[in-house]
Amino acid sequence: MENPILINIESSDEDSNEENSKTEPLTHTPSGDSEKTAPIKDLFGVQPEPYIITAQHSDIGVKRPQNQDTIMSLVALCGGDDPLVPFAISLVADGMGGHADGADASRAVASYVTQNLSSRILIPMMKDQKIQESVQDMMQQAVLDASRTILITDKRQMGGTTLTCGVIIKSRLYIAHVGDSRAYLYDDVSGEMSQLTADHTYVEQLLQAGEITAEEAAVHPKRNLLFRAITGDDVEVDLITRPLPARGTFIACSDGLWGSIDHDIMTKVIGSKGMNLQQKCEQLVAMAIQGGTTDNVSVVLTEFRL
User: Fold this and answer.
1) Which domains are delineated in the chain?
2) Is it the case that residue 61 has pLDDT exceeding 60?
3) How far is the C-alpha of 19 from the C-alpha of 15, rounded, in Å?
């Protein structure tokens, strides 16, 4: 097996004229009230319909001259006598490489994957057609095909992107993952948030091998080196599937967010009853910037009741 290629995702376009647009933190702080809201069924004696809502926010941060992150979300849910199965796509692609290469790569991959999965899963569902392929196979193929859309012939260029994509169908979650963006799942009943993806970084390999501690990993000089990313060639895709809780939130975010906010603080924000979903996105991004991130910061939150 060949040695992995290490890609430094700290490179950026120093000649870009895009304006720095630092997000100011919200004036309120997450509620510390851990009391759970009673289900509507308990209040009115009827079973509530399922719902899925989504919110997202991305910021250039305080250092980079360009935002190379791309975030996308799509929700489809209709009610009535014959309701559509709950469906959502949520993804984050974190571009890397100098000049516009990283931004172009993340946008191209995110757009292709969203369009591909929509046409192969959502459209047949809306037409009451049976989906012949497995969702995991379709997601893997979508990522591989998307990679070919950014095939780089000039080897002096280093454009590429990470991708963390979650698809919700009915009460199940499917994830396709490459790189060091992350997916989390918050359970509204237990109040716990779990990380679902593993980072494809050199430092994560050292951590899993027991060669460094978590504290050392957080400040390691090579923590930004990826051994797996979407760069135009075939790539190994992590595929994850799991059942969803009755109520919760799916989180997809770039490393500019999770690298600057403690896990427990993220959990507290996601579970807060004092903010709506968009405010939670903005609060998380603002806290990451306050926490000292020098990267672009992006997050997509998909809240569901199934």
Assistant:
1) 60-305 (3.60.40.10)
2) yes
3) 12
